Amino acid sequence: ILLAKGPASLEQELVKVASKISNVKVFIDFNSSFAKKIYAGSDFFLSVSKTNSGGYSILTSMKYGSVPIAYSSGINSEIITDMEEKENANGILYTSHTRDNLILAISKAIKYFKNKDGWTKLVKESMSSDSSRIKPEEEYLKCYEDILLQKIIND
């Protein structure tokens, strides 16, 4: 299931792919309550964006037990501990934003999914991850305060 909102050309391409593959469904729009149902009913959450504006989707997917697969950048690498790097892994990161690396990350996830004990541990870690250290609103406020202070000094 793909729930997406983006450039029209990409949306059209996703709809075209879904029309050719019976078990792929695409919903073009964003609906928070529907998204939560998708999170709760899925094993993986795939975030293909180069940047993630705050990690909300990833954090939400984790709380619903959907293990994130995401590009290792910014907030993503603060939230996700890759399954190959540490004992307290809670997701899967890929480090090069290419099609091949994304496919490799998905392949790793599917392979790990087949190991039920390992997968169960990964899901539990994901669901119990401590996100309290991630406070984007505080960072935004500090940024705005710095900008305002700079404006006052320069005026």
Task: Give a description of the structure.
- The protein has 155 residues and is mainly alpha-helical.
- The protein has helices at 8-20, 32-41, 56-63, 74-79, 99-113, 116-127, 136-154; strands at residues 2-4, 26-28, 44-47, 67-71, 92-94.
- The strands form two sheets. The protein has a three-stranded parallel β-sheet with strand order 3-4-5, sandwiched between helices.
- It starts with a strand and ends with a helix.
- The model has no long low-confidence stretch (mean pLDDT 85).
Secondary structure elements and their pairing?
Elements: E1 2-4, H1 8-20, E2 26-28, H2 32-41, E3 44-47, H3 56-63, E4 67-71, H4 74-79, E5 92-94, H5 99-113, H6 116-127, H7 136-154
Parallel strand pairs: 1-2, 3-4, 4-5
Q: How would you characterize the largest beta sheet?
A: 3 strands, parallel
Average pLDDT score: 85
Beta-strand segment tally: 5
For the record, give the distance between the C-alpha atoms at the N and C termini, rounded to a whole number: 52 Å
User: How much is the radius of gyration in Å?
Assistant: 18 Å
The stretches of 5 or more residues where confidence is low (pLDDT under 50) are none
- The portion of residues assigned to helices is 40-55%
Short description:
With 155 residues, this protein is mostly helical. It has seven helices and five strands, in the order E-H-E-H-E-H-E-H-E-H-H-H.
Comma- or semicolon-separated keywords:
three-stranded parallel sheet, mainly alpha, two-stranded parallel ribbon, 155 residues, globular
